[in-house]
Amino acid sequence: MTITGKWILGLSIWLSIVWAGTALAAPPMPARIGGTVTIEGIQLTEASDSGDTLSVTRQDGSGYTPKAEDSDGLNAHNWYIINVPIHDAKIQPGGAKPGDKAVIHVYRNGKALKIVSPNRGEFVVGPNGSTNRIDIVVGK
Prior knowledge:
Layout: H1 3-24, E1 31-35, E2 37-39, E3 42-43, E4 52-58, E5 63-70, E6 80-84, E7 101-108, E8 111-117, E9 122-124, E10 131-133, E11 136-139
């Protein structure tokens, strides 16, 4: 094998190791929740959700890092989508642990609204990469 061939082989092996290490250092896939939002009997649409923000916190009210929120409005299917970050001790220590209870919050123009379904806005965080439908009903 020539010096050039050995150099290319060595570089290929080094890049494979670096790439594998980078892939292993990625944070876990989030636990995604999504669904419809109904406020006082009226289901929100992409056109009618102006001023609404949805977020998810721990039961004690503290937030996750990165934040778990949908502040850009409903999508074209009139659904909210929130990615709940999953805990990893080294890469994402501010994430939720699968199986933990979390709380959904709905705000209209910065004012917290009362969620009646799911009960008190509570749900169980799914495993990384999971997707769960949680339709939200806000009452008076």
